[in-house]
Structures are given as C-alpha cells and as structure tokens.
C-alpha cells in the first residue's frame, strides 16, 4: 500500500459505516483536527501513516467496510495495529488509541480530507449541497419504517431516491449497479439506526468509465447530464416480485400434462385379435367419424375400462390405440392427481379434461384408476369422494356439443375393477369393460414372434419352434414373455462366453451335467477370462452367434410367471403317462373338459352347452387329484388348485371375498380349470345342525359363482371329495356339478398298469414280477401301491448302507418285506359303503343312502 496522498480510494460512506465500492478521488478540503467531536489526535501519531496502515489491514483481511461505532468491528483493527506496530502504539492507552483509530477511519473517508492535493482538477464532480441535504432528509425518513423487513427498507430506498442509471449497452453493468447500491444503502441504514450522523456526507463524485456504481447526484456521461430524478430505477437483487394479475400464483400452478402421440401400433401387440373389434366400435369410429353420431342424434361412447392382471399389456394397448389413430394422447397416473391441498386434486382433473377438449379429438388415459376412484362407501376421507364426483362430472361433459363436435375418449386401466365406484361403470361413462386376461397358447405364440423380431435366432424366425415355447409357458402374460426373451439372451451370452473360454463344446458336454460346485467354478473361470480380454470379438466370431431353442428352455426354468408369484398355480406338469388305469374316467373327462376347450365349435353346432363342473368322488388315494391335473395339462388350460379349508376365514365376509377372487382370477386366466379339493369341507349341507352362518354364506357365494359360469367363458370346475353325502345337494344339481364320476379302486389289471407307471424310475431286478405283486395287492389304492414301491426301495437302500455296497437294485425279496409292512387303506366294509353311495347318486342326487347307519363315518381316516 503506497503513501501517495493523491491516489483515489474506492469507497461509499454514509454516516459511520464505511464501505469500499468504487474508485473516487478525495476532496481537497482540509480534515478537521477534531473528528471525534472534541478529542484531538495524539501528538505522537502520524495520522496519514495510520490511515495507510488501516488500508493495509482492510486489504489483507478482505474488508470492504468498517463501522467505527461498533466495538466488534473496531477492536480487531486496534489489536492488529498495536501488535504490528508495537513500538509506536504500545505507549498509548488502549481506549485513547481506540478513539484515535476511529477518528483516523472517519478522517480516511471524511469530506474534509487533506489527502488530495489536486482538488482543483475535480471541481466538476463536487456534490451539489441542495441534493446532499435532500438525500439526507430522505434517508432520515427511513428510520420511521424500522418495523419493516430489511428487504422492504431496501426497496423503499430505491423507490424514493430514484437512482439514475448510466446508459450502457452492457446489461451486466446494471446488475453491478444494483448490487453496489444495495451495499451503500445498507451501510447508511446501520449508521442512521445508531443515530450517529456527521455534518458532511461525502457522495460519489465522478463516474469512471469502468464503474458500475449508481450515483445519487447529477452525473455527466458522454457530455450529457442525467438528473437523479429520472424515472429509471433498479430492482433490488434477489427480490421476488409479485406476479401480475394475469399470471397464476403458486397455488394455482398445476402439474403440466404432456400431450403426445405414441409411436406404438397394433402390429406391435400380439394376442389382441379378439378385442380389436370392440376397440374399433368404441374408439375408432367416434374419433374418425363423429358426424355419424351427430347425424343419428346419439352421443358416442365416452370411455372404456381395461382390466386384467399386471403385465397383461393394458398401458401398451392404450398407447397403441392413440398411435394407430395418430391423435393426441394425454397420459396421467392416478396417484399424480392426488394432492395434499384441499381442492387441488379436483382442479387437476378439470385442467386435464380442459386440455383434452382443447386438443380434441384426443384420448385421456388414466392408469391405476382404482387408486382415486374407489367406492365412495369405503372412502375414509372426504377428498376421495370429491375426486370421484369431479371425474364423474367431467366425463358427463364430454358430449359432442360441448367438445366442438370432436370426440374425447377416456381410457381407464386397473387390476381391480370390482373396487371402482359403481357410478363409473354405468353406461355413458365407461361404456364397455375390456378384459386383458392371461393369453392362451395361440396368443403367446404371437407375442413371442413380435418380441423376437429383432433377435438373431438359430435357423431364422421361419423355422424356429415358437409353438413349443408357447406350449411350455402357461400362465405367462406379456411382461413375463418379455422377461423370458431377455433371459434367453442372457443364457445365450453365457453359453457363448463359455465356448470362447473352453472351446466349442458339444451340447452333451454343456454345464447341465455338471454338479453345482463345478458350475460355480466354471462361471468363475469364464468371468476371470473375460475380464482379461481387452479386444472386442471379431466379426467372424459374432457371425455364428445366435439364440437357440435350448436357451429358451433354460430360461423358462428361471422365469416365474406372474400368476405363480401371486399364489395361483399354472398348468401342472402331470400327464396321462403319470397315471395308470382309470380309462373310463379319462374318457369322461376328455369329453367334458378337454374337447370343449380344443373344439368348442363342434359343441355349438349340435347345440350342447358346456358342462359347468365335474365331481370326482371315491375312496381316498385313488388318484382324483392326479386326474384333475392331467386333464388340465392335456387341454392346455390354466390350473388353479384350491383346498377347501384355504378359503375359510374367521372374519365376516372374507371367505366370500376369497371365493369371488378365485373365480375372478379364473375368468382372467381362461381357459382355466378350478380344482376344489376336499369339497365337503367348503360346501357342507346347510340343513346340518352343526353348520354355522359363516359356512352357509360361503355355500351361497359358491352357488352364486357356479351359476355365473355361463358368462365367464371357458372356466371349468372340478371338485374332489371322499364324502359326497356331506356336500350340499344344491351343488350337485345339473348346471353346477352335473358330471359325477366315481373313481373306484383299481382292479388287478389296473394295478399292474399303476405299478408299471410308479416303478419307471426305480431300478428293478429281473426277478421282480409286477404281475405277481399286483395279485397280492387286493383292495390297494393307487396311493397304497405307491407306498409299496417306496417301501421296497427303502429296504434296498437300507441293505446297501448296512453292507457298505453300491448295489442299489430292488429285488423280489425287498417287495416281500414291503408287503408285510404296507396294507390297504380301504377295508372291504368301506368299499361296500362307497359302492352304495355310487348307486344312490345314479338314482337320486338329493338323497344319498350309505347304509343302515347313515351317521357312521365310512372310514376312520380319509386322506388322499
């Protein structure tokens, strides 16, 4: 810091707070020797030198202002000077040196400064005395507004002083002026609040070419005088301005709805052939030709409801409809509409429909609509009821006369249509409900062909076996099939990397024959090798790569369908080869269930209605459950297995709801077979003294659902029981369980077939004669025969362990031991009772005669 007294210092001064803000020369007047109002400087102190040292302190500590009336700001300066120049200032008392420093700082930026010797050169920049007095008066008036916030005070300063802005082409200079002005006025307010004022206020005098500081006095710029009373003002920095009356406030601001036209077409979807006609009637005709409806004097459909299990393609179908018609598409998720502020949710709905009308013809798609439009009877908050009422009102206003003759269609999507408010599901709102259930085998094949269009398949798409994959993926929805395609690609990549590391292996040497430890080791070697490979694969290596059918087979084992994840079984893996004998029952089941699914047109031609259900009854362990699984597998239908007690719940209404859910899921998965095991526990006689009101409600609900099967399409019911006499007679009438099939114990010939089926995987010695064993198994059920083979295999294993040998061959001696341990589970007396039940059901379904003691249980333990 030099000591040239003629140099200029950047500053702005109001009262006692001093801040550096612009370069300006000091006036030529002499400084008063009594700046502190009577206290003179110490005779040993060189004031000019002290001023220079204060400036050094400000520069080294990055200070732009010092309030010499504040001890907190002044004492650090005093301490710094006494410590840095101890020899000169140590002898002066602390309080006296503090006053000297305060006077020096005031002198440093005071009007009566003797630090400038060339005042004659700057006379044109002197402040007009009248303007100075006027500015002081206005600043003092600000003290009256001390209760206002600091931002309000700053705004008043700018408005009252009407600061003149120097014309400039650089917009950034204005920002600098506003910032500097704010700093200056802040300093002046601090000074006035402390009621410390000086007789002279030194204002900025000369506007330099590079300066951005506004002046309160008349200024000369490029030869033109600009008066401070001009109307040009500078807005305070970071001050939020109040929106004009034409702009919406923050409360009125809404979530912007994106209007788009999707690129998806119907050709990008598979398995929708059965619903395309409904889509054309309900959406395409009103959108493309609204004049037809106007001419006929009717209103077109206003909405459709898409429902189905997750991943069935509801959202994609809505996008494809808008993409096919090339019209605006307004998509919103129901939870986005809900707001915490009262009235905002309803406002969002109104804005959504206004945008739709403005872009008509258009489609409004509300995803997960059940989240906001559930039944009002169950609503826990008034807001939920208001949302439902608002959407009903907006849908009622979508008539052609209110939409300028252009149709607006509303599409809703949900997984739970039964939870929607009933007012939405009437005609005039959601006119039609379209179910996107679990696709059948044909639809799955179409979806797979579309999903693999861009994949490189072995042999090409023309020869790839899509039908086999579709047959092996029952219960898969569109999302599951997409996951399957992605997983097959992952399997293929792993196989390709394995071939690169270990060489081109044959399919017989693939890891399917490896133990889990060997497979883990193999994967580790592949990963380590690939990490060390820096070069990409060559075109020759990539040319021979493709996804094979075996890759899909492995991927099927890894991908679990949505229906199975939610607790519902899909097509079982039991085939007729797993069942021995029962030829008569097989034929009846094929005619009752399999043929109506595979050839429904033949039944319609002869005027036959599809039987609603089949009851399998007979002794335990005769294969009733296996029969139900095998017929489901053979027909390709989905399979839902329900144990009777599983649906029972102690809470009122829960059991009935569980029954409805089963049939609803079956309808969405049609063709589907519902198998009720232990039907006597789920549907007991209602006139029984021991029956309760809850069990009666379950029976009533089940009877109601069975009556509604005609409207549910290909939903078949198979029930199994050991006690048909305990089932409510209303369930056994034609139209419900109208096919009653008696599954009796196998005869000798059938026992041989059952033994051959069960023993397929058991290594047998040549001395084992299954015909001989079958003769010894009189009255054995299928479960008893299975227990016999298992016991013989156990005897063989025990003998091998005791002798420490690897000879695991089941011999005739092992079966002899097993026959001494396993006995038939159905006695001769029980068998006669079941025969009587069968004869009684053939004559009358309402009155089943068992024996002379009707209350007696025909078997002590009944378990299949």
From TrEMBL:
Superkingdom field: Eukaryota
Annotated TM spans: none
InterPro entries cross-referenced by the UniProt entry: AAA+_ATPase, AAA_ATPase_domain, AAA_lid_3, ATPase_AAA_core, ATPase_AAA_CS, P-loop_NTPase
Any one of the GO CC terms: nucleus
Ranges of compositional bias, category Polar residues: 9-18, 159-174, 198-220
Any one GO molecular-function label of the UniProt entry: RNA binding
UniProtKB keywords: ATP-binding, Nucleotide-binding
One protein family per Pfam: AAA_lid_3
Name this protein carries in UniProt: AAA+ ATPase domain-containing protein
Organism per entry: Naegleria lovaniensis (Amoeba)
Single GO biological process annotation from the record: ribosome biogenesis
Family to which the UniProt record says this protein belongs: Belongs to the AAA ATPase family.
Biased composition (Low complexity): 179-189, 221-233
Domain AAA+ ATPase: 300-440, 610-747
Residues covered by region (Disordered): 1-45, 159-255, 845-864
């Amino acid at each position: 810091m030099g000591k040239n007294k003629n140099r200029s210092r950047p500053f702005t001064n109001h009262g006692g707070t001093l801040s550096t803000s612009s370069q300006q020369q000091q006036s030529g007047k002499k400084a008063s020797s009594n700046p502190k109002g009577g206290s003179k400087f110490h005779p040993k102190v060189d004031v000019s030198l002290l001023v220079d040292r204060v400036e050094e302190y400000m520069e080294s500590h990055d200070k732009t202002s010092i309030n010499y009336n504040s001890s907190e700001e002044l004492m650090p300066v005093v301490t710094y000077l006494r410590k840095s120049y101890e020899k000169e200032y140590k002898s002066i008392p602390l309080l006296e040196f503090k006053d000297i420093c305060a006077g020096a700082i005031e002198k440093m930026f005071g009007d009566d400064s003797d630090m400038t010797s060339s005042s004659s050169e700057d006379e044109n920049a002197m402040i007009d005395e009248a303007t100075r007095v006027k500015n002081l008066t206005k600043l003092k008036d600000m003290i009256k507004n001390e209760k206002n916030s600091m931002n309000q005070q700053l705004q008043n300063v700018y408005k009252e002083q009407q600061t003149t802005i120097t014309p400039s082409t650089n917009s950034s200079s204005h920002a600098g002026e506003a910032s500097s002005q704010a700093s200056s006025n802040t300093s002046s307010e601090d000074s006035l609040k402390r009621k410390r004022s000086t007789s002279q206020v030194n204002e900025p005098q000369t506007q330099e070419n590079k300066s951005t500081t506004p002046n309160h006095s008349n200024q000369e710029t490029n030869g033109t005088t600009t008066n401070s009373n001009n109307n040009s003002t500078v807005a305070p920095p970071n001050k939020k301005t109040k929106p004009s009356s034409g702009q919406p406030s923050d409360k009125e601001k809404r979530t912007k709805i994106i209007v788009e036209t999707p690129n998806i077409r119907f050709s990008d979807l598979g398995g929708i052939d059965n619903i395309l006609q409904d889509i054309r009637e309900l959406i395409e005709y009103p959108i493309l030709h609204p004049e037809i409806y106007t001419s006929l004097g009717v209103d077109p459909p206003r909405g459709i409801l898409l429902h189905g299990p997750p991943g069935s393609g509801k959202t994609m179908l809505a996008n494809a409809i808008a993409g096919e018609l090339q019209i605006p598409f307004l998509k919103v998720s129901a939870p986005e509409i809900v707001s915490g502020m009262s009235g905002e949710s309803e406002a969002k709905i109104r804005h959504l429909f206004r945008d739709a009308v403005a872009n008509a013809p258009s489609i409004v798609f509300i995803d997960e609509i059940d989240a906001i439009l559930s039944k009002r009877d169950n609503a826990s908050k008034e807001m939920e009821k208001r949302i439902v009422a608002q959407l009903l009102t907006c849908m009622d206003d979508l008539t052609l006369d209110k939409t300028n003759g252009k149709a607006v269609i509303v599409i809703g999507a949900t997984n739970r249509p039964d939870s929607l408010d009933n007012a939405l599901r009437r005609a005039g709102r959601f006119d039609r409900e379209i179910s996107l259930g679990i696709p059948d085998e044909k639809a799955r094949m179409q979806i797979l062909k579309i999903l693999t269009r861009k994949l490189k398949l072995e042999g090409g798409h023309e020869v790839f076996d899509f039908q086999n994959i579709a047959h092996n993926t029952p219960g898969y929805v569109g999302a599951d099939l997409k996951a399957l395609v992605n997983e097959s690609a992952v399997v293929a990549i792993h196989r390709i990397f394995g071939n690169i590391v270990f060489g081109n292996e044959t399919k017989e040497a693939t890891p399917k024959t490896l133990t889990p430890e060997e497979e883990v080791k193999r994967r580790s070697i592949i990963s380590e090798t690939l990490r060390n490979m820096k070069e990409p694969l060559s075109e020759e290596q990539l040319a021979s790569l493709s996804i094979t059918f075996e890759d899909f087979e492995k991927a099927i084992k890894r991908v679990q369908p949505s229906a199975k994840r939610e607790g519902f079984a899909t097509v079982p893996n039991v085939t007729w080869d797993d069942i021995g004998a029962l030829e008569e029952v097989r034929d009846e089941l094929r005619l009752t269930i399999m043929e109506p699914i595979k050839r429904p047109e033949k039944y319609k031609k002869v005027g036959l209605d599809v039987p609603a259900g089949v009851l399998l009854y007979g002794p335990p362990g005769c294969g009733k459950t296996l029969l139900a699984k095998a017929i489901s597998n053979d027909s390709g239908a989905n399979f839902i297995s329900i144990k009777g007690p599983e649906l029972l719940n102690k809470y009122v209404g829960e059991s009935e709801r569980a029954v409805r859910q089963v049939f609803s899921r079956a309808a969405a998965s049609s063709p589907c077979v519902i198998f009720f095991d232990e039907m006597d526990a789920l549907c007991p006689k209602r006139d029984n003294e021991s029956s309760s009101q809850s069990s009666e409600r379950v029976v009533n609900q089940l009877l109601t659902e069975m009556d509604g099967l005609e409207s549910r399409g290909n939903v078949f019911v198979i029930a199994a029981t050991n006690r048909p006499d305990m089932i409510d007679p209303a369930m056994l009438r034609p139209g419900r369980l109208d096919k009653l099939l008696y599954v009796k114990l196998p005869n000798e010939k059938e026992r041989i077939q059952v033994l051959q089926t069960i023993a397929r995987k058991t290594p047998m010695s040549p001395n084992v004669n299954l015909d001989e064993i079958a003769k010894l198994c009189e009255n054995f059920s299928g479960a008893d025969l299975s227990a016999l083979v298992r016991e013989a295999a156990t005897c063989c294993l025990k003998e091998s362990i005791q002798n420490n040998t690897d000879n695991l061959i089941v011999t005739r001696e092992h079966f002899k031991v097993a026959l001494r341990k396993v006995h038939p589970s159905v006695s001769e007396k029980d068998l006669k009772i079941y025969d009587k039940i069968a004869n009684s059901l053939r004559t009358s379904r309402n009155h089943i005669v068992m024996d002379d003691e009707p209350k007696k249980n025909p078997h002590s333990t009944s378990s299949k």
